[in-house]
Amino acid sequence: MKKMSIIKVNTVASRGMAMGQAMIFDKPQLTASRKIISPDKVEGELARYRQAVDTAVAQVSSLSNQSDVFAAYADLIQDYALTELVENNIKNELQNCELAVENAIRTFSDMLAAMDDEYMRERAVDIRDIGYRLLSILQGRDVHAPVSCAGESDKPLIIIADDLSPSDTIKMDKSKIAGFVTQRGGITGHVAIIARSMGIPAFVGVSGIMDLVADDSSVILDSVNGEIILNPDEVMREEFLGRKLRWEEKQKLLLHYGKKPAFTIDGKPVKVLANAGCVEDVKCAAEYGADGIGLFRTEFLYMNSKHFPTEEEQFAVYKEAAVSFNKEITIRTLDIGGDKALPYFPFEPEENPFLGWRAIRISLSMQSVFKTHLRAILRAGFFGKLRIMYPMITGYEELVQANEILEECKAELAAEGKPFDRDIQVGIMIETPAAVILAHDFAHHVNFFSIGTNDLTQYILAVDRGNRNVAGLYNTFHPAVLKSIHHIIKAGHSAGIEVGMCGEFAADFEATRLLVGMGLDEFSVAAASVPEIKQRIRNISVAEANASAAELRDCYTQKCVDKIIADS
Amino acid sequence: MVRQKVVIKNKSGLHLRPATIFSKIAAGCASDIKLIKGDKTVNPKSILFLMSAGVKCGDEIELVCSGETAHDDMQTLIDAINSGLGEDDE
How far, in Å, CA of A440 to CA of A555, rounded? Predict the structure, then answer.
């Protein structure tokens, strides 16, 4: 028995849990017989090429009912530029047909592989796949010879390969495959797509895996922990099967509860959205059945960069978010401050970072950075349903100033003829006591409110929860915080706007009923909590919840709050 | 010679599938056609060249048609782009 080893992986292209027997997929390298031909052979070689193209087109056309990528292959094989280059290699360079094809394919696959767009780089695989097919035909090989399944055992197989093209996977017996691991490839590659459609795990970009795994050895793919376990021992196998079972149960539950909208017992719809800190989170939220993104944090773009991210860099990210999830996405403008340094922009150390230069205050004093940010959001808004949300607003003038800058950005984009969302909705985070007190006034000047309970709690109660000595005083169930939340919701509704909540409190099971009773329109929580909060809402009656919220009016002690919560 | 600028609206830009559709339409035109994006100029009658221009959704490109049927061909190409090249823009 070989020794057990665990390999951590970075790129989970398709999620899932699988245990099986390794099958190394190593296809023969085809190389052209390098030959320079005499001029009288040119016609013959050209004819061989056309014949090979016809055969290849016929082959892929017959496969197009199995995967529509092959329909595009038929066109690629006959591509104008590819044909011209191959024919030129034969006619003018006097290369034989195989060499002419090999050189032309290399030219185009190198061209795509050098692009700075991951999707286009992945297409180099398609070009090489076509080249492989043409060479196979020219050399009289059968490109469709089925892959022999090692040992012909009934065990599920984990395919280990350098990379896999559509032509490779089409000939595999899918019913036996439990997972894929490839040395190359990305999350937009063919392996990723096919694994997701089969609902099995795939890890890509695992360099060196082919040297570590032997045919027939036992392999576990665990996407929850992001691990490949080679030669697992009996204890590990047992433990994994338990993990696999729990994961599958959870997936079933998620699918069952997550995707459907949440209605209370008495039929009121309540939206449950997800918070996101990157594009991957947005995709994850879609899988968990979120009704949108209630908080898209933009900090990651600034913190993971070596310079202030450019408009194009930001645009690409916001656009990807917008197109990958066709629901409302609320983008919070930059919320950084003295407690989070940027590698390229040192903040002066502050005594009280939470009372210092942060969030909208930074944006308003660094207008060029703010404009770049807003322009990128406006442009991305053209491709989906984006909303803008300003954080840390304390005064009306801040809102006016931010909106003036937003209007300047719109005017610039219009003058430049760039498409953008002219009617983008604008809202504010209510997270400072000043904004709570002025909530009725703010409500008439924005499209929505979102309550940020983490900051709101610390500002209302004057408690730094990072300070051990007072952390125990941090309590969103404090009557002053709850009454503030109720006040904000009523203020929003009196002006006819929706009120959401994106702090941790929105995911607190004990608070759900009270919040529904207060009339909260949107809960925004971590993606993984969406199904559970939805399920909680489905067991709440608005009539009863309203009564609980009404009791809060005369309640000023913690004991009284606790009783309301306990009764609900 | 006719020149016209147009913004690509379908959501994946000129990815494999839309590039295939567009290049077929371009190949059906008698004009010589150039597609210019930034500092790249390509012949859109080839899917491969078209993809190498890396045209994304929201990008502005310029088309240049020359030949007897340049006007009609330009209209055909612009219509194809505005129709989303086989992708629904929901």
Answer: 22
Nearest Cα to Cα of residue A501 among A567, A427, A440: A427
Give the residue from A120, A128, A311 with the most B CB atoms within 10 Å of its CB, the best one to mutate.
Answer: A120
- Give the count of Cβ contacts less than 8 A between chain A and B: 70
Low-confidence ranges of chain B (pLDDT < 50): 89-90
Report pLDDT for A198. Answer: 80
**Alpha helices (H) in A341-385, listed in sequence order:** 360-365, 367-381
Which residues in chain B have their CB less than 8 angstroms from residue A127's CB?
48
* Residue B61 lies in domain: 2-82
In a domain, B20, yes or no: yes
Which amino acid is residue A245, in one-letter code? L
Interface residue B24 vs chain A (CB under 8 A): yes
Option in B20, B54, B90 nearest A75 (CB):
B20
What is the distance between the alpha carbons of residues A523 and A453, in angstroms, rounded to a whole number?
Answer: 12
ipTM: 0.89
Residue of B nearest to A112 (CA): B52
Which CATH code fits A262-567? 3.20.20.60
Catalytic residue among A97, A284, A409, A502: A502
Count of the separate structural domains present in chain B: 1
Please choose, from the candidates A199, A150, A152, the residue with its C-alpha nearest in 3D space to the C-alpha of residue A26.
A150
The answer to whether residues A165 and A190 touch, using CB atoms and an 8 Å cutoff, is: yes
**CATH at residue B74:** 3.30.1340.10
What Å distances lie between residue A436 and A364, A430, A485, A496, CA to CA?
Answer: 21, 6, 8, 17
Q: Which residues contact A397 (CB under 8 A, 6 or more apart)?
A: none
Catalytic, A256? Answer: no
A120:B20 CB<8 A: no
Q: B70 vs chain A: nearest CA distance in angstroms?
A: 20
Segments of chain A with pLDDT less than 50:
149-151
Q: Which helix (H) or strand (E) holds B32?
A: strand B32-37
User: How far is Cα B37 from Cα B7, in angstroms, rounded to an integer?
Assistant: 11
CA atoms within 13 A on the CB side of A510: 11
- Is A383 close to B43, i.e. CB distance below 8 A? no
Tell me if B87 is assigned to some domain. Answer: no
- Out of B16, B23, B90, name the one closest to residue A123 (CB): B16
Which residue has tokens 């150390």?
Answer: A349
To the question of domain A39-138 being in CATH 1.10.274.10, the answer is: yes
Residues of B recognised as catalytic: 15
Distance CA A520, CA A499 (A): 6
Contact at CB, A117 and B7, closer than 8 angstroms: no
Length reported for chain A: 568
The encoded tokens of residue A277 equal 């800190």
B40-42 and B32-37: which strand pairing? antiparallel
In the prediction, which pLDDT does A151 show? 47
- Residue A278 CA to residue A297 CA, distance in Å, equals 7
pLDDT tens per residue across span A203-235? 998 988 988 898 889 999 999 889 999 999 999
Are B58 and A418 inside 8 Å of each other by CB? yes
